[in-house]
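Lecture 7 notes. Example A: sequence first, then its structure tokens.
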Amino acid sequence: MDRRNKSTTTNSAPAAAAANAKSLHCIVKLGGSAITCKNDLETINEDNLSVVSSQLRQGMISGPCHGMDWSRRPGSTEIQTVADELDDKLESDCRRLIVVHGAGSFGHFQASRSGVHKGGLSKPLVKAGFVATRISVTTLNLEIVRALAKEGIPSIGMSPFSCGWSTCERNIAVADTSTVVKALDAGFVPVLHGDAVLDTSRGCTILSGDVIISHLAEHLRPDYVVFLTDVFGVYDRPPTEPSAVLLREIAVHEDGSWSVRQPKLQDVSRQGPASLLT
């Protein structure tokens, strides 16, 4: 995982204090390759998204729950609502959960075609690509929020750009987590995503979902971080390479450093802050 969160953040201490008062149970990363058809431009893997949404509901919500997507779907003339069936006396309990998702087949084409990740916001192509990238990734975010809401998960989409997150030389510079904590305290499930953001040095760049998770985990200290991917786990190199080795056990130490326990590898170890969260 590329870890770019070394710069100063704002208002993270109050957010962390609030989070510690009510423990964050889990951060779930929905990998872009798992929830979209990565070789088909802007195409969601409906089956995978439906399954994971149902599994999250089963694992995170106790008590009765009802669908919360009351919007009209394309091709439909009706709005699906269960408002008349809701009983205000029946309460369900949702564990404190944050969802972060990758972009998959959304956003990558627009970002790479325009060079948003390289910066240069004064260039017309980059500025147009910045807008196009955000349209694409926020479209995916809305569909994921809808899928979760359909299962009765009180999900709220939160875009890093809209929340004021920014970078400097692609390292997180401003990432106020207080809005995320307030949503958790109100009983919602924040759903964040990789996004195009402003960069004080380059003008703009791409802030990945993995970096977002790393930052949230560092400041909000969840009990678990879970990754949904299209591979079997964490590898010592890109899993598409023939010599890639599956790392079956990773130990994260008190000082934040980590090491691989199984299998025994000579070259896979880290002495600094952990960049792999399992």
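Example B, a different protein, same format:
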Amino acid sequence: MALDPSPQVKVIRSTHKRLRDEFCECKDFSKVWKKHCSDNQGLKEYSEAMYELATDVWGTKCDGKDRTTWCKDTVEEYFHKGKLEEILEKDKRRQEYYEQNKDNFFIKNPTESTKTASNVPKIDEKIPTENIQTVSNLRKIDEKICLLDVGSCYNPFHDIEDFETTAVDITPANKQVYQCDFLTVDISAENQCNGPDFDAENATKIAALPKNHFNVVVFSLLLSYIPCPHARLQMCEKAHKVLTTNGLLLIITPDSSHQNKHASNMKKWKAEIEDIGFCRVKYEKDKHLHLMAFRKIPPNFIIDKRSGQNTKLEKLLNIPQDFNNTVDNACL
């Protein structure tokens, strides 16, 4: 017999369900989200419940992967243990194949959708040498990883010395997290070495995030919180804007079903997110989670036509609850 959920779980589930119900009823996401963000008491209760779950329950009793450890290991593997160098070597070989047989490839510019990219490159089309990434023009190995944790709650990455973390949430659970609504925050000019712009009247509130600034953006249990499928994809588009070229978008989303139950939907997620200008470099299905890492690809990225990236896209990211508004996540 299933145990009754804890009070914290009840708060989280009821909040998610209320948001989905309100969006389903009125179909105006901006209206639903504005109302949600103005509910200070409800936001405070949600933040406290999530903090208690993350620190007192999931951190000690969860029988699946630890989300923070998975992110740390993935970032370390990518930047410090040769994964990125391996990927860049594949890029170089792909360019050589492209020069030999252009008909099998097309050029993908991350600022354009695959559907509008040139399907048949001109015979004299060349890849500018400045767009070919090498280890020498990437971030230095001894530099800290500049990481943006969105929907952070309490900044679980705070004690990781290799990370220079900017943690944001609409309702921070502690002083290590800045107040910021990632859905509506402005994106400021490129090459801002000092990081985010802060509100003139509130030093703990972020007014704008810098473009092409972060090495890593983390969405941990975030996208399933958003009730609108289109808004979920828009968040990934904004992550693309604030990431540096070859930076990582880490997405963790709950699913306690067996490996293959929602495999087709995860395939759609991959196609939709890659169309923004990403390439998936890692995927795992844990007992309670899908864990994904996407690389922001450089301009003029060469794509094999046989990869299937010309699939018809819907410009949204669905979760199972979009079709059946019931609880389907035992980890919550």
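Note on Example B: Residues 110-132, 327-331 have pLDDT under 50 and may be disordered. The first strand starts at residue 105 and ends at 108.
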